[in-house]
Amino acid sequence: MISGSAAGNVAVTGTMTIPMMQREGYKPNQAAAIEAVVSTGGQIMPPIMGAAAFIMAEIIGLPYRDVMQAALIPALLFFTSILFIVHLRALKSGMAITTDTGETESLLAILLPGLRFVIPFALLVGMMIAGYSPFRASFVALIVLLIGCFLFEWRDLKGYFMRVLKSLEEGALAVLSIAAACAAAGIVAGVLSMTGLGSQISRVIIGISAGQPLIALGLTALMAIILGMGLPTTAAYLILATVVAPPLVEMGIPILTAHMFVFFFGCISTITPPVALASYVAAGIAGSDINKTSWTAFAYGITSYILPFMFFFGPALLMDGSIIDIIVAVAVGLISVFCIASAVVGYFLKPLNAFERLAMAIIGLLLLYQSLITNLLGFGLLAIIFVLTQRQALSNNKV
Predict the structure, then answer these.
(1) Backbone φ and ψ of 104, nearest 5°
(2) Cα(227)–Cα(240) distance, integer angstroms
(3) Are 67 and 75 in contact (CB under 8 A)?
(4) Which of 53, 145, 196, 218 yields a CA-CA distance of 20 to 30 A from 258?
(5) 213/399: higher pLDDT
(6) Three-class SS of residue 178?
(7) Which domain holds residue 304?
(8) Is residue 154 domain-shared with residue 299, that is, in the same domain?
(9) CB neighbours (10 Å) of residue 342?
(10) Domains in the chain: how many in total?
């Protein structure tokens, strides 16, 4: 969330997580793909969402709190989806969480060292929801983080202070890259405005779609992915907000929905073949084939390509609706991303055949649509698949 670059996230955390996943039994391309997808998700996860989210708040004229609030449910569904994929992949491969001694490690022992990061994160979110400015909330959370790390690392004071100084240096360098990206994006936006190319793209999208929002969303998604390839999140969003978001607003789509739509596709361009920078960096760390890693990451992140379309059909996903609508959207959304993850991995109580995987994918899409008819149909099909797979799983266990 802090670096503003999916490829940068992979480079920093992938050196630790990818070898760890490989030791646990994941194939190199699988471990690299998981890291690439999760690093991409950092750009859409509140409360920070990368620097581009702050720019979005300025462009559309809404408080950053509203942007953060709208992105919360989609981000949770995104990370829940990859969590399901990781878990189902482990079940399908017969993996288990063990220590180097072969003993099962308790969940408390795994989570306790992470409290120093969880507490500042919760404080940051809570202060921003309470109405504090992002700068004050981040400052207080940073102080709490430093205190928490000190309590865990006080035995190595020299190393602690060296890491603090190193983080200050990296933060200053990160600001330089963001400033350069904003300047470059400003030049591109100016050229598009002066030459009239931006308005031409808008007219093309509106003309081809013939007033049909779904077609316009599809064309916009394609344009967003193409324009976002090879660019960091901030620069990609600035270009997309100038070129492809205006046509959606002109067609009557709410401005926050339109900008969140292009923001998502600008982010996931980093895992979209053929130009998938985050996947390329992860493949280099894992020593896996670049193309294989890119397509695996594309499959693991497939939910992120579907969610933006649901913003239009199910506004409750963006916190636009009553509390009951939002709760139902979250509950149904969690089940839907599980079904999609099951279809991607090919496992649900047992390994799934091609027909069962297709059925699970259809169920996931039906549930994501957020309507009563599609929800009832989706849950009915899911009940049938559950009964069939459970019977087959029990019969296989008896054999």
Answers:
(1) -70, 135
(2) 7
(3) no
(4) 196
(5) 213
(6) helix
(7) 6-313
(8) yes
(9) 26
(10) 2
- Do 173 and 120 share a structural domain? yes
On the question of pLDDT at 185 being above 80, the answer is no
Residues 303 and 331 in one domain: no
Q: Is 166 exposed, middle or buried, given 0-12, 13-18 or 19+ CB atoms closer than 10 A? A: exposed
pTM summary value: 0.71
Token representation of residue 143: 């102080």
Q: Give the residue from 272, 290, 313 where a domain finishes.
A: 313
Residue that is written with structure tokens 């809404």 in the block? 62
> Hunting for tokens 């809570």 — which residue is that?
126
Residue where one domain finishes, among candidates 257, 280, 313 = 313
Name residue, tokens 């699988």.
Answer: 30
**pLDDT per residue as tens digits for the range 237-246:** 777 787 778 7
What does DSSP assign to residue 350? S
| DSSP character at residue 27 | -
Q: Same domain, yes or no, for 389 and 292?
A: no
Specify the 3-state DSSP secondary structure of 211: coil
Statement to judge: residues 307 and 327 lie in one domain = no
Residue 58: which pLDDT band, with cuts at 50, 70 and 90?
confident
| Identity of the residue numbered 284 | G
Could you tell me if 392 and 245 lie in one domain?
Answer: no
- Residue keyed to tokens 């978001």: 245
Is residue 240 a contact partner of residue 227, using CB atoms and an 8 Å limit? yes
Nearest to 47 by CA among 102, 114, 122: 122
Q: Which DSSP category does 347 fall into?
A: B
Residue 306 confidence (pLDDT) above 80: yes
Alpha carbons 58 and 43: distance in angstroms, whole number: 17
Instruction: Single out the residue of 325, 338, 369, 284 nearest to residue 31, CA to CA.
Output: 284
